[in-house]
Amino acid sequence: MSLTPEEKFQTGLLTDLEPVAEKELNRHLSMADEWFPHQYVPWSQGRDFDGPIGGDGWTPEDSSLDEVARTSLIVNLLTEDNLPGYHNAIAGVYGREGAWGTWVNRWTAEENRHGIVIRDYLTVTRAVDPIALERARMTHMEQGYTATHGDAFLHGTAYVSFQELATRVAHRNTGKASGDPVCEQMLARVAKDENLHMIFYRNLMAASLEAAPNETMRAITEVVKAFEMPGAGIEGFLRKSVMIANAGIYDLRLHHDDVLQPCLRKWGIWDREFTGDGAKARDELAEFMEQLDAAATKFETRREERRARQAARKG
Predict the structure, then answer these.
(1) pLDDT in tens, 265-285
(2) Domain 5-49+61-314 has CATH 3.20.20.150
(3) Residues 6 or more apart whose Cβ sits within 8 Å of residue 290
(4) CA-CA to 148 of 20 to 30 Å: which in 216, 293, 309, 310?
(5) Is the Cβ–Cβ distance between 247 and 177 less than 8 Å?
């Protein structure tokens, strides 16, 4: 069966950029620290739960976290839980051979630690209802995961460049919001992994901009305009995300200022020369970023007004 022009383009780009992938893989391996999830969990706080071994059932009073921190931790964990779907999606983009395949497996192994350590922390500290958490995990994973960008190399790589950085921000801010130094230390460790993953993908996109500038620019624009977090399929995600945004853990301002803009600046998007559809895509992106900035400002204003009203009522 003959390849379509788009398939030929994708295959050619994968082949051309494999030396870059190998270089970035080696850089990653030289910088990634070995760490162990069990060392970040306060096991001495644990006790048996109800069930076959007859421990104590969970009650809300068991948790020292407020509702916002608890919700954010649950969203973060359920997002990590869908790793099998992400592995399948990323393998569909990069394949399973050579440096690409080595990266896919290494990335998956590192990501798996995140779900392990967060779940162990939540269970041992009784921060959340473990039965409700397990039911939420089953519901979320039964839905599976389908990437909005399919197996397109440029769209897939652009997406994970932004998504890994977004996840880093969400983990770090969740840790700070928890009020628990142990939790903050754990999520800072997880966020460090996410940052290294982001650098791998971001550097691949930089190379793609050199190899195929206009096609890459179009992919970046389409991904930015349609971006949603991988946990968007979590049951009740909209309500949870609003709560998280109102707490300043992850909101439109952070998405614009701390996720999108840093990547776009690093790639030199506003200073590069594009032609044809690439130039059109950058114009579309500039317009979208202005709209997003305005929406972020509007959200911040409304949030401050709500906080002021709440403070006045308490006063």
Answers:
(1) 999 999 999 999 999 999 999
(2) no
(3) none
(4) 293
(5) yes
